[in-house]
Amino acid sequence: MKTDTNISGAHGAPVVALEKASMSFGPVHALVSADLVVRRGECIGLVGHNGAGKSTLVNVVNGRLTPTGGAVSYSELAAKASARNNAHAHASGVRSVFQELSLCPNLTVLENLRIPYRSMPRNGWRKTAKKMVMAALDQVFPNHGISANAVVGDLTIAERQMVEIAIAFSARDARANLVILDEPTSSLDAAIAQQLLEHIRTFCTNGGAVVFISHMLGEIFDVATRIVVMKDGQITEDRPTDGFTREGLVDAMGHVASHEEAGPNAHAKRNLGDVVVQLPNGLNARKGEIVGLAGLAGHGQAEALANYYLSETSAWRSTKTPKAAFVAGDRARDGVMPLWSILRNMSLLTLPEFSKRGLVDRGSEQKLADDWKAKIKIKANSLTDPLLSLSGGNQQKVLFAKALASSAPVVVMDDPMRGVDVGTKKEVYKMIRSEAQNGRTFLWYSTETDEVLECDRVFVFRDGEISAELVGEDITEENMLRASFEMQEAAE
Amino acid sequence: MTREHLRILLPVLSLAILLAAVFYLQPRAMSYFGLNLLFNLAIPVALATIAQMMIIMVNDIDLSIGTFVSFCACVTATLVQDTPVLGYAVLLAAVLVYAGIGAVIHLRGLPAIVVTLGTSFVWGGLAILVLPSPGGASPEWLQSLMKSKPPLVPMAIIAATLIGVLTHLLIKRSSIGVVLQGVGGNERALERAGWSIVQLKALAYGLAGLFGVLAGMALVGLTTSADANIALRYTLLSIAGVILGGGEFTGGRVSPIGAVLGALTLTLAASFLSFLRLSPDWQIGAQGAILILVLAIRLLVTRREAN
Q1: Which of A32, A290, B26, B216 holds its CA 20 to 30 A away from the CA of A91?
Q2: Neighbours of A228 (CB within 10 A)
Q3: DSSP SS3 for B71
Q4: Which chain B positions have a beta carbon within 8 Å of A150's beta carbon?
Q5: Same domain, yes or no, for A306 and A218?
């Protein structure tokens, strides 16, 4: 099946156009007045640091999010912030491949084509689906060796990713006009990734458009005709690839509107003790040190923390004093006890320390909670109120209080400031610093640069491994970006 | 051999082994009449198991299937027998209510296990209202259908085969069946592709209701009368049947043919224990032991496969 030969519309005709599109989630402005036109025949490389607004932009383009301001128009139908952007995007042949796999693992490869192809004719659908999915696979990844009847759950991660990409490029009722690929090569080996880049080039030559997000700058320079740089929810650069150098691109991503130079003050000399944490991947921390884990989200930082924390605390016999305490970033999943009161949530970790013969000492529990409420300034009427009555930032403070109140010598923090307002952040930074003075060690994974700048030492992660260790003056946003993005040529 | 094949192999093997054991203990069971006797009560169980499978397929679980089948049996034995139009209307309404429950569970984000536990009392109460004391009668056509004696192969075997093949075509082969399985596999992917999860869940629950109704009717056809507590055991039997047949509680991995085989195996296990002259006091426990044994074997097999 020749997908690409007769796509309607000439090169250069716009597929999607954003006009001053803005997207706010409550007080958070994820996308600020973005202008972007995606034309046939071009491949746009989209780069930016964590939280720069890449995924919001992509979700506005594919119609999943309806912008709160501005307009989106598609080649097929102009739609002004209508609730049916999703349908328009679909009709215009806009397809997306996301980082988290969106295949059904219990279905076969050909059956998975049925999910996005909603208007598939009923009669002989298996035959049609098989032909389509195999044609797409053969075209994008020649010699892929994947059978149409294989159950997706039995395939390797790379094969699943290949199937998903092929399904996005496949011809269905509407042809693929714009394919959005979010880190498509993250689980593919170099040879397969080359096949994909090759296909993107032919697809674009034949009049298709691609938006390509990758942390491998080599790939971006290899395939993109235009590079769009995002920062703080804004599109800051939008130029042909020729106009960029690698160094220039890293510079363009960095330098977030400078927050009053608070950075290095954190590195005031402290007496650091012995090494108390030593992980097999090379990460280590000394007593009283604040160690940051940086890099793009999803490159193994959370796993490294979880592995360390679980190995320290999973003994069969629990001890009175925990070896490590954990502050969750994903509160709902691994932080709070949603039905419990503030008090109970706060004392959860410390219960063994002040319980006698298996009974909780209510008096000291209350005292501890009162102390911490004052210390960390939790805005609550009463500590017996349900935890969920608090605002997000105050809930997060409770989780900090829970961890800091324990006598654990190491505190593990998994991006704990997600969705917390600036004021709260400042208070918590101060508290972390003073706790570190008192000899407590912090392992701090953060996706926000100004938080990482608070650390004494930073390990930058890339593809599950540590790509750089930065100390003191070297902890700069530029260095972190350099280490987060693969600077080498895409390997052949 | 893929994991799918292994999945179906275990129920086939466990049924075959159990059947061989029964034939060894009681050679006279190896006849047209014997087989019919062994398996005819498995038909309503198989239908209820398919109903449960529809729910498990979309990652939920139904604790009300037993009382629902009892309710349907009571309606069949009274209203359908006396005032057919009203009777069938009630059964149709019951299917729609089931679909509605599915929609509500999804829309409100409620745990299915709690909601269906609640509705199980409702169905139980309605069954008592319809038929306060055991009795009623089976509609003529139903009785003659369930007790018919086709040549060569007993009715029980034909019915079980039919149920298995038809639901296999519906769930595993048809276009909409695959989408329904997808709900269990990756709900978000379907949502992204623009499917209405509410409609799909309502469809799955509606199908469960439909098979629950069929189970109730088949049961009345066999026993010729009903009782509000007639099918209480079906709730756990149906869950066990789905799992025994190679299904899993999450991930939309179910096998209709396996589910029917699982139901047959569970019914046969009861007969097997009687042939062993085991005291009825111990039978439930022994049935549980058989179940644990089979599931343990399956776990071992799939673990090895995974490594």
Answers
A1: A32
A2: 22
A3: helix
A4: 2
A5: no
- Asked if A257 and A56 count as a contact pair (C-beta separation under 8 A), the reply is no
Residue B184 is inside which H or E element, if any? helix B175-185
Structure tokens at A31: 């996308």
Residues of A in contact with B193 (CB under 8 A): 115-116, 118
Whole-number Å distance between alpha carbons of A162 and A155: 10
Do the chains contact at A106 and B173, CB–CB below 8 Å? no
Going from the C-alpha of A20 to that of each of A7, A253, B45, the distances in angstroms are 28, 21, 61
Q: Please tell me the distance from the alpha carbon of residue B74 to that of residue B134, in angstroms, as a whole number.
A: 9
Q: CA-CA distance, A458 to A49, in Å (whole number)?
A: 17
Pair (A175, A249) in one structural domain: yes
Chain A residues 72-131 with CB within 8 Å of chain B = 86-87, 90, 102-107, 111, 114-116, 118, 120, 122, 125-126
Interface mutation vs chain A, best among B58, B183, B187, B192, most A CBs within 10 Å: B192
A413 and A468 both lie in a single domain: yes
Q: Fill in the amino acid letter for A264.
A: P
Rounded to two decimals, the pTM is 0.79
Q: Are B54 and B208 in contact (CB under 8 A)?
A: yes
Residue B251 to residue A106, Cβ atoms within 8 A: yes
- B189 touches A: beta carbon within 8 Å: yes
Domain boundary among A355, A385, A407: A407
> Which residues are within 8 A (CB) of A354 and not within 5 positions of it... i.e. 6 or more apart?
A360, A361, A364, A365, A368
Q: How many CB atoms lie within 10 A of CB A491?
A: 13
**What's the angle, vertex CA A80, arms to CA A79 and CA A85, rounded to 5?**
50
- The two beta strands, A43-48 and A209-213, are parallel
- Torsion angles phi and psi, residue A491, rounded to 5: -60, 140
Domain that holds residue A396: 337-407
Q: Token pair of A89, please? A: 């995007």
**Partner-chain contact A154 B3, CB within 8 Å:** yes
Contact assignment for A104 to B186 by CB distance below 8 Å: yes
Which of A195-199, A313-317, B260-264 has the weakest average pLDDT? A313-317
Asked if the C-beta of A167 comes within 8 angstroms of chain B's C-beta atoms, the answer is no
Adjacent-strand bridge partners of A72: A18, A79
pLDDT band at B2 (very low <50, low <70, confident <90, very high): low
* A115 chain-B contacts, CB cut-off 8 A: 179, 182, 189-190, 193, 195
Residues in chain B: 307
Per-residue pLDDT tens over the stretch B269-302: 888 888 888 887 887 788 788 888 888 887 887 7
Q: Which of B181, B192, B194 sits opposite A102 (nearest CB)?
A: B192
Task: Look at residue A397 in the predicted model and tell me its pLDDT.
Answer: 86
Residue A120 located in a structural domain: no
Pairs of CB atoms within 8 A across A/B: 61
Q: Which of A53, A451, A446 is nearest to A253 (CA)?
A: A53
Helix (H) or strand (E) holding A284: strand A284-286
Q: Which of A95, A99, A133, A97 is nearest to A114 (CA)?
A: A133
Local structure of residue B66 (DSSP, 8 states): H
In the sheet that holds A69-74, the strands lie side by side as A28-39, A14-25, A69-74, A78-79
Does the beta carbon of B5 lie under 8 angstroms from any beta carbon of chain A?
no
Query: Cβ separation of A151 and B181 shorter than 8 Å?
Result: no
In whole angstroms, what is the distance from residue A16 CA to residue A36 CA? 8
Put simply, whether A147 touches B (Cβ < 8 Å) is: no
Whether A173 and A98 share a structural domain: yes
